[in-house]
Amino acid sequence: MGRSISSQRSGRTAVQDTVSRRSRRASEPPPFEVNLSPFSEEERRLILSVVKRDLELRCMEKQRLKKIRRGLLLEDSKAPLSLPGAARNCTICSSQFLMLINPRVTCDLCKRDVCKRCSKVYSEDLLCSICSRDVFYKAMVCQWFYSNTSKQSSGCASDAIVKSLFRDNLPGLNDLTDEQMYDTITRYLGPNRRTYVNGEFITPEVMQKIQNEQIRLFHKKYKGIKSSALADLLKVRANAQVGDSKINEVEIEATTARFLQQTREALTQLLKMLCITEEKYNVTLDLPRKQPTGSQVLAIVQRQVEHIVGHTIEVRRHHSLPFK
């Protein structure tokens, strides 16, 4: 009889567990799935380029939140814990407690003794500045971020698109982080000179802006050199009417030589800056280079010189650059 009652209870428990699991499954939203099979290869690449941008933003946001979290942990480690009412100085700013002027208050969360300047009222609770920022941080990042930072974004549409495309080739796709998934899409899309380094994305557009700024500074410097040389030549011409012609020729040659030397130095500086910028960018890419950095930079400088002189020039590319 006891066995019968026990078996009935265990059976009811099993049925209740089954019903509970089914109800939970029914209440949970179905996984987001995307079928990319009807799309052509070109359409897939366009879709993945959008997904890639979404992953970029997610990676950068995670890096930003991690930086904030590290700052909070560092500040928390510097503020010692003590028994409430035992500290004589603020545990955050170290200012001395003085009655009426700088009274002691106790944080309702961590129980630190702090001054009024280092405290804040939050939802009718008195919190120290560290706990206050920590509360705002948790509200900002939500629980999903620090509960499991490896992968808690399986419900994102971008993840579903990547899984639909790489399901057969990457069985362990669910275990990939956003950074690893970004690298996977990058390899699939092929060389596009865009890379993710130290929480920042380096793009061809950024590199182009840097190079354009370096070229702009060169033209500004060259304009100053040219204006100075023309002013010197005008002075020589003004003195030619009353001075010795041989002296004037020497001054003209000296002015011309100075102009050429300063222009050469400006071009050399431009070559150096362009080479450094291009090389820093290339070393972040795990891609084969179509041509050496020196050839790319010489082509850029050649166009600038042709713009200055007003005609095409020939560059002997087998020569090394004029600096080491």
From TrEMBL:
Compartmental location: Cytoplasm, Perinuclear region
Classification via Pfam families: FYVE_2 (PF02318)
Region annotation Disordered: where it falls in the sequence: 1-34
InterPro entries to which the protein is assigned, alphabetical: FYVE_2 (IPR041282), Intracell_Transport_Effector (IPR051745), Rab_BD (IPR010911), Znf_FYVE_PHD (IPR011011), Znf_RING/FYVE/PHD (IPR013083)
GO cellular component: cortical actin cytoskeleton; perinuclear region of cytoplasm
Assigned keywords, A-Z: Cytoplasm
Compositionally biased residues, Polar residues: 1-18
Tree of life domain: Eukaryota
Molecular function GO labels: actin binding; myosin binding; small GTPase binding
Domain RabBD per the UniProt entry, residue ranges: 33-148
First-listed, main subcellular location of the protein, grouped into a coarse class: cytoplasm
SUPFAM superfamilies (UniProt xref): FYVE/PHD zinc finger
GO annotation (BP), single: intracellular protein transport
Name of the protein: RabBD domain-containing protein
